[in-house]
Amino acid sequence: LLILSAESFDYGFLLRISEDARRAEALNEYLSCRSYLAGYGPTQADAEAFKLLCGPPNQRHAHALRWYRHIAALLPQMNDPRLRPCDAAKGKRVQPPWSPPDGTEIPKLKLYNSLTRTKELFVPQRGNRVLWYCCGPTVYDASHMGHARSYISFDILRRILMNYFKYDVFYCMNITDIDDKIIKRARQNHLLVQYRAKKPSASQILQDNRDAEPLKHPVLILMLFSVFQPFQVKLAETTDPDKKQMLERLDTAVTTALTPLQGAIQSKAPDAAIQKQVLLEEAKDLLSDWLDSQFGSQVTENSIFSLLPKYWEGEYHKDMDALNVLPADVLTRVSEYVPEIVEFVKKILDNGYGYESNGSVYFDTAKFDASSGHSYAKLVPEAVGDQKALQEGEGDLSISADRLSEKHSQNDFALWKASKPGEPSWESPWGKGRPGWHIECSAMAGSILGESMDIHGGGFDLRFPHHDNELAQSEAYFENNHWVRYFLHTGHLTIAGCKMSKSLKNFITIKDALAKHTARQLRLAFLMHSWKDTLDYSNNTMESAIQYEKFMSEFFLNVKDILRTPTDITGQFEKWEAEEIELNKSFYEKKEAVHEALCDNIDTRSALEEMRALVSQSNAYVAARKSAKLLPNRMLLQSIAHYLTDMFKTFGAIEGTEPIGFPVGNNGQSADLESTVMPYLNVLSDFREGVRKIAREQKVTEVLQLCDVVRDDILPELGVRLEDHEEGKEISKGQTKKLRKLYEAQEKLYNEYLQTNQNGS
Fold first, then answer.
1. Backbone φ/ψ region at 97: left (φ over 0), alpha (ψ -120 to 50), beta
2. What are the angstrom distances between the C-alpha of 554 and each of 594, 615, 691?
3. Domain tRNA synthetases class I catalytic: where (predicted)?
4. pLDDT at res. 164
5. pLDDT band at residue 496 under the 50/70/90 scheme
6. How big is the CA angle at 150 (ends 144 and 154), to the nearest 5 degrees?
């Protein structure tokens, strides 16, 4: 029997709870940890507790429910006034018990974390706030599609986290403006400008005069033995197939330009000067490299090394703006953080994880890895000892034999580099030098974001050694093991299946890409692929994006045309039939599918496919309604179009405040241009329909043909499609905004109509 003894049952705690559901929950918890097998009849305690309940407890409260049923069975409440629950004794009707629905499990955001190589539940460290650091560009040349691959992808992820999942994202990015590549390129450009300023003659360029004083006699510069011979040796020694192919192309180009110049000089042809310029242009890289090897150490003016990155940083920002990539909340430059970098290095030394050698400071990877709580190369442990990757991480100017011999281990990397002649330098406790590559991100991110961040982003090729070294030196500085919680790496970009590399001269600049496709089309191409996988930039990829854009744009135009159908304020609310209910059901299913896709590592590819399927179902619904001579439901289609538009805005594929669809207009034009132009299009459409009606009545086929020309030839050139419906009405779909040309088209049609009537037709 489930009867409580009065002595053991203290029901007083129930009196302090006002809500019946909470009271039942508390009773259940009380009974779950006590034995209530006592006595053979209800006690006063049972009666009082029973009376406090307004009905049977929820089935979730198994102990309380069993007790309640036994008490109710032994002492029916109608026969024992002690057991009348709540106000039943007073004869009042009371609300029946209520319990919340079980509900369904809501998908939660998971991100692919390179630290675990699996999708992990995303949990920010501080509530809703997300601290995010992204590795920015090394600015020594034009930004290319490889940069776009990372920065568009991270812009998409950032927008979705902010605008869809509603996280408060604080986004920090760096600009690398001190680096071996920048130093070398700045010197090369400077020396090449000096050389060209000497205006060497064609014969001087070919003359072998190695004993001439450098730069005073330009005859020295492009000598076959001094320049071309070392290049041939380098070509012969290169084993990497991609690099060898690049060098072979350069060899062919220089040889092809050299032969005509030799012939022009020997024959004293007047085009020798032209041939000289051709050779100089083709051999520019070859010549620059040789100039730097001979005279680079003589470049001492620090401003030379700052002008180049400043220019290319400006170009980078212009490219990002053209791609509609949001600017960082904080932008850090290495040149502005040298004091912080010096202090960062000093603390790593103080913590025992670094050592000084000949004015340089190196990170002791073995000491760090052996320390409790630390582990080196968390991202790519299998790459430890990869000397090729390690040397690429140190930079071209830092892998000489003397530099390599300074290290305790070949796995150690530079925190601070002693500057050599021809390199910029800053004061430090170890002498004049400059920051290592990896240390910059640690010092700058640490200054802004503190000892731990939620997300760190970068390209796939930065995992080792750059990001692994960042992790090691940062955790050595902060003495923790969680400098980064989630590491996100975007996939590689290939060009028509081939590896893209600036050093291999196999790249497409962002400006070149934007000359062929719009920023929206490029973004759609990225959205149609996983952000962490390799993306192939090819004609097929872009054609898929273009067709997707056209498909969506057509739907938006059709919906806007339906919404322009005249109706009063009550007429827009139409009765829903089975077709509307079915489409609405599908609408919500697709929204759930999109949400699931975005929760699954922000799978935009699947999300776009679900959105495409929703549009296909909507198009089928519209076609069926029109086939039945019925108007589609305005409000339902408007809701679908609004949702799709909002999602494209979330993805960064739509700018402005247009409520539905892609904005009409070129860059710099008003986002509200469509609404401005549409009244004029409607006038033109009505006028044309009136002309067609008269022409049909008068059987003037020439005027009908002119109307067709306006519809089929003139207006499409202006980005406007005019459709003739079976019932004789027209639909105009504005897609561009050259208002003046619309006036001209309307005026031309009107004049032709007048001329036809004046001829007596």
1. beta
2. 21, 10, 28
3. 122-545
4. 98
5. confident
6. 140
Bridge partners, residue 501, by sequence: 506
Q: Integer distance in angstroms from the first to the last C-alpha of the chain?
A: 107
Quickly state the pLDDT bin for 668 (edges 50, 70, 90).
very low
Give the tokens for residue 553.
């744009």
Q: Which residues contact 66 (CB under 8 A, 6 or more apart)?
A: 2
Q: Contact, 333 vs 532, CB < 8 A?
A: no
**With b meaning 16 or more CB within 10 Å and e meaning fewer, what string describes 633-665?**
bbebbbebbebbbebbbbbbbbeeebebbbbbb
Kindly report the length of the chain.
761
Contact by Cβ (8 Å): 275, 260? yes
Residue 515, amino acid: A
Residue showing tokens 């070949």: 410
pLDDT at 420: 94
Task: Return d(Cα 661, Cα 659) in angstroms, integer.
Answer: 7
Q: Evaluate if pTM is beyond 0.85.
A: no
pLDDT on residue 35:
63
Position 640, amino acid: I
What does the block give as tokens for 182? 């920048």
Q: pLDDT, tens digit, for every residue of 598-646?
A: 999 999 999 999 999 999 999 999 999 999 999 999 999 999 999 999 9
- pLDDT(229) > 60: yes
What is the rounded CA–CA span in Å between residue 179 and residue 22? Answer: 65
Give dist(CA 523, CA 533) in Å, integer: 15
How are beta strands 360-363 and 118-121 bridged, if at all?
unpaired
Amino acid at 192: L
730-734 vs 110-113, strand pairing mode: unpaired
Determine the pLDDT at residue 208. Answer: 33
Whole-number pLDDT of residue 53: 84
Element (H, E) at 625: helix 604-627
Question: Is residue 663 reached through a cis peptide bond, with omega within 30 degrees of 0 on the bond before it?
Answer: no
pLDDT at 412: 96
Q: How far apart are CA 645 and CA 639, in angstroms?
A: 10
Count of CA atoms in the C-beta half-sphere (13 A) of 309: 23
User: Degrees (nearest 5) of the Cα angle 352, 358, 364?
Assistant: 30
**Alpha-carbon distance 127 to 221, whole Å?**
63
Q: Where are the beta strands (DSSP E) in 11-83?
A: none
Cβ atoms of 461 and 150 closer than 8 Å = no
Helices 44-52 and 62-74: crossing angle in degrees, nearest 10, is 120
Residue type, 271: D
**Which residue, 346, 244, 227, is CA-closest to 289?**
227
Q: Which residue has the tokens 């036809």?
A: 756
| Contact (CB, 8 A) for 332 and 173 | yes
State phi, psi for 134 to the nearest 5 degrees: -130, 135
How many Cβ atoms are within 10 Å of 611's Cβ, its own excluded?
Answer: 23
Burial per residue of 174-195, b for 16 or more beta-carbon CB atoms within 10 angstroms, e otherwise: bbbbbbbbbbbbbbbbbbbeeb
**Ramachandran sector of residue 500 (left: φ over 0; alpha: ψ -120 to 50; beta: rest):** beta
In Å, how far from its chain's centre is CA 42?
Answer: 68
Of 83-87, 257-261, 264-268, 562-566, the range with the lowest mean pLDDT is 83-87
Cα–Cα dist 115/52, whole Å: 55
Q: Tell me the three state secondary structure of residue 333.
A: strand
DSSP-derived 3-state class of residue 75: coil
Question: What contacts 334, CB < 8 A, 6 or more positions away?
Answer: 174, 175, 176, 177, 178, 179, 341, 435, 440, 444
Does residue 209 surpass a pLDDT of 50? no
Provide the 3-class DSSP secondary structure of residue 112.
strand
Q: What would the pLDDT profile of 119-178 be if each residue is shown by its tens digit?
A: 999 999 999 999 999 999 999 999 999 999 999 999 999 999 999 999 999 999 999 999
